[in-house]
Design a protein that fits this description.
This protein has 396 residues and is of the alpha/beta class. It has helices spanning 16-19, 48-55, 63-75, 82-99, 117-126, 143-160, 178-197, 216-220, 233-253, 282-288, 309-326, 340-355, and strands at 33-38, 106-110, 131-136, 167-170, 205-212, 261-267, 296-300, 329-332. It folds into 2 domains: 16-174 and 339-361, Rossmann fold; 178-332, Rossmann fold (3-Layer(aba) Sandwich), CATH 3.40.50. The chain has a 4-stranded parallel beta sheet with strand order 2-1-3-4, sandwiched between helices.
Length: 396
């Protein structure tokens, strides 16, 4: 991983330290504020279809089709938990910042529902906070979990006319940061220990690490182009690496669980049947477990920072129903949410960028990390849309 600047580097709307194009910044930056960037979600029945229109903008999907997806939200009163979770996360970050004596305001904006990123960036600019460091509520590398956020930052700066006034850097992808991984490790360890204590043999327990499925073409283009991450790209490789770390810790905490098998599964597919998406599906795998001699399954929402709608519906509802139908016991472990270790980890990432912490001193739990501060050229391309302007990375 070279730390040389790229000749002719173009990093849009970047601080001077990030504008060099170095993979990891080498100069400290005096940030004015933190931009907490979320996906957004409806907060009432009347919000559901307008929200889904925003999510699918540009794809020409009629409302009748959107209503097929809307029933997940309708089931919960039209309310996604994600906004409440981000309010709680924002408050927790503010408390942690204050405890450390770090005077940085936190501006929260969403890509798809109020409060929107446009509002957050304009609020920051109006307050005189023009050098922002973004934290996206997504830990892994792919178009939808990283580059799309970076494109939205660029779009917002252009739409608000602030592209020459406000700079937006972004903390590195934190999939293997100890603060993010902590809650998953604790949850899987507790689940396996409890199942063993209830008399279930460790060899008859299966751990399923679940994450959002994405189009195979997007997965293959996730991460930088100069490295082969395997058929699922950096997206799948990052999940696999973190799951391996978690299971190694589980085996240390519960030695008899060293024989417990695990695998990476996917959920929440939304594309047409003709388009290949990452597989296998979590419910399909659960249905096959009895034939493999499995009596209990531990479902780990590894791809999510908090209990999103995909967790409440696809895992807590559909996956649990699949386990009941299969006649096996099922446990779903927690997401990081506002776990103190996770919140501390996010603030650690802010300090890391503020102080330009040396790469060798940056905490990471897999050989893939620490990930880049400045995304590499052509990283996480969306093959259907091509390369739109994006901040926090080298063009394109």
């Amino acid at each position: 991983m070279s730390e040389r600047a790229t000749d002719g580097a173009v990093v849009l709307a970047a601080s001077p330290a990030a504008a060099s194009g170095l993979p990891h910044v080498l100069a400290a930056t005096a940030y004015d504020g933190i931009l907490l960037a979320g996906f957004g979600g409806p907060e009432g029945q009347d919000d559901v279809i307008p929200f889904l229109r925003n999510v699918t903008r540009g794809r020409g999907i009629p409302d009748e089709r959107l209503e097929e997806v809307a029933h997940h939200y309708r089931h919960f009163g039209g309310i996604s938990p994600i906004n409440a979770q981000n309010r709680a996360l924002k408050a927790a970050i503010e408390v942690e910042l204050a405890a450390r004596g770090i005077d940085l305001p936190v501006y929260w904006g969403n890509r798809n529902w109020a409060p929107f990123l446009e509002d957050a960036v304009q609020d920051a600019a109006a307050a005189g906070d023009s050098t922002l460091l973004a934290i996206a509520t997504s830990a892994y590398s792919s178009y939808s979990s990283c580059r799309q956020y970076r494109e939205d930052f660029a779009r917002v700066l252009d739409a608000t006319g602030l592209e020459s006034t406000v700079t937006i850097d972004k903390v590195r992808q934190f999939f293997d940061h100890p603060g993010f991984v902590h809650a998953f490790t604790e949850g899987v360890t507790a689940a396996v220990r409890d199942l063993v204590a209830d008399g279930i043999a460790p060899g008859r327990i299966r751990v399923l690490f679940s994450t959002h499925s994405i189009p195979t073409s997007d997965a293959q283009r996730s991460g930088p182009r100069d490295r082969d991450f395997g058929p699922g790209g950096a997206y799948a490789a990052q999940h696999e690496a973190v799951a391996g770390v978690i299971m190694a810790e589980v085996a240390r905490a519960v030695p008899e669980a060293a024989v417990t098998e695990w695998e990476l599964v996917y959920q929440s597919r939304s594309g047409p049947p003709t388009q290949p998406w990452l597989e296998p599906d979590v419910c399909d795998v659960i249905g096959e477990l009895p034939a493999r001699g499995v009596d209990a399954v531990v479902i780990v929402p590894l791809g999510f920072v908090s209990d999103h709608m995909e967790v409440l519906w696809d895992l807590d509802t559909e996956a649990m129903e699949a386990a009941e139908k299969a006649g096996i016991r099922a446990v779903r472990t927690p997401t990081p949410g506002i776990d103190p270790a996770f919140v501390r980890g996010l603030v650690d990432l802010v300090v890391e960028r503020r102080d330009a912490t040396a790469v060798e001193e940056r905490p990471h739990l897999t050989e893939l990390g620490p990930w880049f501060d400045v995304c590499r050229p052509a990283c996480c391309e969306n093959v259907r849309a091509g390369f739109r302007p994006a901040v926090s990375g080298l063009a394109p």
